[in-house]
Amino acid sequence: HRIITLNFTWGDAAQLEQIARAAADELIENTSFYFQQLGTDEAGVTLIDGPLIGPVGGGVRDQVELPLRILLAFLVGVGIVFLLHYLDDSVRNRADVEALGMRVIGEIPRARK
After folding, report:
1. pTM exceeding 0.70
2. 21, 51 contact by CB (below 8 A)
3. For residue range 64-92, what is the model confidence (pLDDT) as tens digits?
4. Are 41 and 30 in contact (CB under 8 A)?
5. Domain ranges of the chain
6. Which of 22, 72, 91, 74 has its CA nearest to residue 50?
7. Residues 23/6, Cβ–Cβ less than 8 Å
8. I need a surface site. Which of 1, 33, 41, 88 has the fewest CB within 10 A?
């Protein structure tokens, strides 16, 4: 005794049920052709359960891909921010000028609110 399970994936549920029923009917009607390796014409196929049609869930890749893309985008964004900060050569205050070894001869005060 052996149990065979047939799994089909198809876009349309009604067509999928017809395909599954046709496959089961074909196995039942032509058992001796499909099971010649058994060496007997007495092999029989009995349908235990009819076709069960249900949605197929997404794979592991579908579940992991979006969070990985978000994480990668975040890390690239942080990397770009650090790169721009590193390459920025703006002088913003007196300490920046003095750190360059230059003398400050004047300073524009910040506007008061």
Report:
1. no
2. yes
3. 999 999 999 999 999 999 999 999 989 88
4. no
5. 1-56, 60-99
6. 22
7. yes
8. 1
